[in-house]
Amino acid sequence: MENIILNNGIEMPLLGFGVFQIPGTKECEQAVNDAIEIGYRLIDTASSYKNEQAVGNAIKSSNVPREDFFITSKLWVQDTGYEKTKAAFYKTLDLLQLDFLDLYLIHQPMGDIYGSWRAMQDLINEGKIKAIGVANFHPDRIMDLKINSGLTPAVNQIETHPFLQQVDTQKFLGENNIQIQSWGPFAEGKNNLFQNGVLAAIGNKYNKTVAQIVLRWLMQRGVVAIPKSVRKERMLENFDIFNFELAADDLEVIATLDRGASLFFDHRDPNMVRWLSEHKID
């Protein structure tokens, strides 16, 4: 596994396993068990996914030492604010059955993020979190948080895939020593990604699948990815990307797929802000 170094010196795997939209305790626990068996050590969950306990069960039942894992969870909008963040964090920690998190993210750029950020800094000082970051933050929100808090996020987890490549945002994040992480690396199959002719042709050159090409492309860009699957053969396929390298001309071709817009929703849309802010997870 290849790692990157976050801005506080913590190592983070470039490839992990996400559990978004894996329902049910048994199904999620089995999926994480399979992922751990294959070799995934970065496991990404969130309070809004409602599967932290299943993730914790799988981690606890594995024979892998805790220090070999990199566990991420996220704070939901209604839990923002200093005191509520502390309470939500300890609930997450209890469900995961862990003594600390490797990374804790503010899930959406909404609510009292500044109170949350102060709480998360205190949790770092208390040894409960190794690194803190954000998700779905545009560069202006990142800069505002950085300037007004005095602490730069370690990670920004954002929609990143061949149809939304986030080149300018990655440049901004790099200039500010913030690691970009992709959610939805396969665009959840939108735009027929898995049947895309450009990606399939490149895959044929290397005897690799479209999914493997996408993950290798992200890796070579230095983007952390957390693909999700409940099928063990797909997890194995996604993990088999360390034995080849895409040529420069392949990267140039993939760059032509960028449409520069989200395939899901706009975090600056007032209606979406309202929906996310009112969307309770309990």
From TrEMBL:
Record InterPro entries: AKR (IPR020471), Aldo/ket_reductase_CS (IPR018170), NAD(P)_OxRdtase_dom_sf (IPR036812), NADP_OxRdtase_dom (IPR023210)
Positions contributing to substrate binding: H107
Domain NADP-dependent oxidoreductase: 15-257
Entry's transmembrane regions: none
Origin: domain of life: Bacteria
Molecular function (Gene Ontology), one example: oxidoreductase activity, acting on the CH-OH group of donors, NAD or NADP as acceptor
Record: active site: Y49
This protein's UniProt keywords: NADP, Oxidoreductase
Family: Belongs to the aldo/keto reductase family.
Protein name (record): Aldo/keto reductase, diketogulonate reductase
Source organism of the structure: Belliella baltica (strain DSM 15883 / CIP 108006 / LMG 21964 / BA134)
UniProt lineage: Bacteria, Pseudomonadati, Bacteroidota, Cytophagia, Cytophagales
